[in-house]
Write the structure tokens for this entry.
Amino acid sequence: MPVFDGMEDAGRVVGYQERAIDEFTAKFRDEHDELDGYSKLLLSSLKSIAQNIDVQNRKGREISRNVASMLDLIRQLHEWDAKAATETGELPDETKRLLEAMSL
């Protein structure tokens, strides 16, 4: 069924993890001129996992497996971030911010 522009998510609750991942992925895309298909897939997977975490949190369910999966994807993206590895030898600022926001 056709939907008006901007109404795709009408009525859907966007939770804390999804907002944090949206900020992370936007910053990651800004910092990387070209992303390959696999990187794009990982970024979209992060959003799906974050949505699942938010839903599970609202229902009082266990989230540790999804959080572990999300962190694995973030670490994989970081490993590909040659700029961070060669220039600073530590996590990019946006990755640090996300991990702090998640209290990990």
Notes: The mean pLDDT is 81.
